[in-house]
Design a protein that fits this description.
128 residues, mainly beta, Immunoglobulin-like, five-stranded antiparallel sheet, 1 helix, 3% helix
Length: 128
């Protein structure tokens, strides 16, 4: 598990290799990642945006940005935890992801970024 804390917001990431699949006649490596967001601060925050950088050793870096996560913009009170699972397809069996969430402090409406630490996407064969 990879973890990082920014302004009292703890991000934890676990990854899973789900196998290979063919899409449009090309072989892809299917990875999922589960993220837990813990609000260990004294403030209520809302996750409004995500920014991802996906590194694939056989392709260029892909940037993904958008509102919320998996169609949601969760509000986390102090000591709340929000968790979700998503995924990506890589052309190679080795890659990585990193990024940040944009959060808004619900009390003073200040925006701030919460770092998502770099995590590796590796097939089990490479781990041997």
């Amino acid at each position: 598990m990879i973890e990082h804390i920014t302004k009292g917001i703890k991000i934890s990431v676990n990854t899973t290799f789900n196998g290979t699949s063919y899409r449009r006649g090309n072989l892809y490596y299917d990875f999922s990642y589960s993220i837990s967001i813990e609000n260990n601060s004294n403030e209520t925050v809302k996750l409004t945006e995500r920014h991802w950088e996906i590194f694939d050793t056989l392709n260029k870096t892909e940037i993904i940005e958008g509102a919320g996560v998996i169609g949601q913009t969760p509000i986390l009170n102090p000591n709340d935890t929000y968790a979700y699972t998503s995924g990506c397809f890589l052309s190679s069996n080795l890659g990585a992801m990193k990024g940040h969430y944009t959060m808004i402090n619900q009390m003073n409406l200040d925006k701030f970024k919460v770092a998502i630490p770099t995590f590796q996407l590796i097939t089990p064969l490479l781990l041997n």
